[in-house]
Amino acid sequence: MSSEKGNVARRRPQRHQNARAFKNDKYDTSARLKKINAKLHDGVCQHCKGILEWRVKFSKYKLLSKPKKCVKCLQKAVKDPYHIICRPCASKLEVCAKCGKEEEIVIPIDKGQGGTENKTTENGQESGLEDELDFDTNFSSTDNEEDSDRLEERFKSMTFERTEVQ
Ligand SMILES: [Zn+2]
Ligand SMILES: [Zn+2]
Prior knowledge:
Layout: H1 5-10, H2 31-37, H3 46-57, H4 87-93, H5 127-142, H6 145-156
The protein binds zinc ion (2 copies).
One zinc ion binds next to α4.
């Protein structure tokens, strides 16, 4: 095996290529992640809550940059990512805000809050809004295909049903 001699000199250490372990805080460690981790996942059934928690855990939980249309009242009133029904409708109809089924809701929506989080008047600098805008622009560059694929594979081995955001 002395013929290897020539190659040995050229061989480069490859340890950098191994620095790809999955990290929950890869995208962020700051406000956005805190906000996401603080999510209660209220108004959804056990099954959907599990999916949302899974997404948070694997950094696949994306915040909405703008409200989505509610499938019940057709208003752009859905402020929670992955939900299809706005809070007022979900609480009125007593259905899961994510899958729309009449399942038992793990954490009922607080009806007293009216479902809005308008804090824009606070000090004139509402950090939450900036976070979301910032988040939107950042995301396209940080959410690279490779990671998605790896996560997809993990996801497939789990039993959760897959639902699309849109
Ligand atoms: Zn609605
Ligand atoms: Zn559900």
